[in-house]
Amino acid sequence: MKKEYDYLFILGGIPYYDRIGGINKVTFLLSKFLNDKNYKVAIVFSTNYINQVAKINNIDFKTKINKIELITNNSFLFIFLKHYFKNKFNNNLGKIDVYPNIRYLKKINSKRIITPWWWGIILSEYYNKQNKYFIIYHNYDDPVEIQRYKNKSEDFKKLIIKSYGISNKIAASKHIYERFIDENIPLIKEGIDLDMYITNTKPENKKNFTIMMPLRVEDLKGAKYGIEALKLIHDKIENIEIETFGNYKGNIPNFINHKGFVQISDLKEMYKKSKIFILPSIEEGIPEPLIEAMINGCAAISTASGGPSEIIENNVNGILVPIKDPDAIASAVIYLYNNKDKLLEMAKNGIIRVRDYDIKNTYNDFLKAIKHYE
After folding, report:
1. Which of 88, 280, 307, 329 is an S-S bond match for 286, by CB 3.0 to 4.6 Å?
2. How many CB atoms lie within 10 A of CB 131?
């Protein structure tokens, strides 16, 4: 007998692992909210989703399978891993059922399938699942986004278009909403748990001139352009501290204090002392680190890479610069360094702006979006 749920979420990544991305964080919070409302909720994870999509659609494309993927694909090893490493996993999902492999879709039913990924729609269609909801965070029509599949990009582009057509679409940002403006799809405002990150640090109390930046391995996160910008800044400004964090594995100059993966407590300490936060991405949804930094009084400099343009009003609560432009990033930092009053004004305006991005608003928007279709 198949187990029944009200909401089933499909995510990529490793169950319970603490190094999760922003979209998974939001989904976890949303799942817990629904569970607290007495809905039956489950999450299905997949680590080798692209290989699975390629296989069922006869596309000759394979990505490297790592050891973690092999473990999570084995149910017994997964259960052992979950309990043995319980202190190292983000095991805060309460009564929500978690399944480590997409194949579990054969064994469960749900009134609604929800996923923030196009491949989640394609795989749920393969397993004959109905009532599919696609929360769209990224513009998959962007050539940079689709090129991650390299010589098979056209094959996957067709599947992305198909995923739009067979799902109930929900926009997670205004630029996605505008992409489907003729279809009148619902819009939700992605938020974060502000209470988890806020430190109540006043921008005027930050002493040293410290700037911080996320450095992430994915090409679309723009790490190489960010590092080039930091080199220019370092050459122009003396007595400046530069701190970075994230999973970037490339060469990082010695003058950068790269902290790698950091816990929330360490991240909050970085926000507390940083005067400027830089986001160098090429394409973004609504970036959580940007909101986290702004609520803690960091003046924001970000590329106009999608979602950041919705948060930042240029020269009012932050500065927007073109993508792939290290010179523009460096010029913005130098401008704020030489105009401390403007930096302080932007930081204070930023705090006010991002109060709108509270996860509680996301909860309400989500329920309205479901009601829109049902």
Report:
1. 307
2. 16
Q: Nearest Cα to 35, choosing from 79, 78, 98?
A: 98
Residues of 223-259 as b/e, b for ≥16 C-beta within 10 angstroms?
Answer: bbbbbbbbbbbeeebeebebbbbbebeeebeeebebe
Same domain, 295 and 283: yes
Spatial separation of the C-alpha atoms in residues 275 and 287, rounded to whole Å: 18
One domain for residues 350 and 366: no
pLDDT tens across 334-355, in order? 999 999 999 999 999 999 999 9
Residues 289, 241 share a domain: yes
Handedness of CA 49, 50, 53, 55 (dihedral sign): negative
Please give the mean pLDDT across all residues of the chain: 87
Query: Are 71 and 183 within one domain?
Result: yes
Q: Among the residues of the chain, which ranges form H helices?
A: 22-36, 49-56, 67-73, 75-84, 118-126, 143-146, 153-165, 174-179, 194-197, 223-236, 264-273, 288-295, 308-311, 326-338, 340-354, 359-373
CATH number of domain containing 246: 3.40.50.2000
Structure tokens given for 127 = 């397993």
In the predicted model, is pLDDT for residue 262 greater than 80?
Answer: yes
Number of domains in the chain: 2
Contact 356, 365 (CB under 8 A): no
Q: Are residues 271 and 323 in the same domain?
A: yes
pTM summary value: 0.84
Instruction: For residue 245, give its domain range.
Output: 194-354
Which of 126, 135, 127, 128 has the alpha carbon at shortest distance from 167? 135
Q: Are 188 and 213 in contact (CB under 8 A)?
A: no
pLDDT digits (tens, 9 = 90+) for 351-365: 999 999 999 999 999
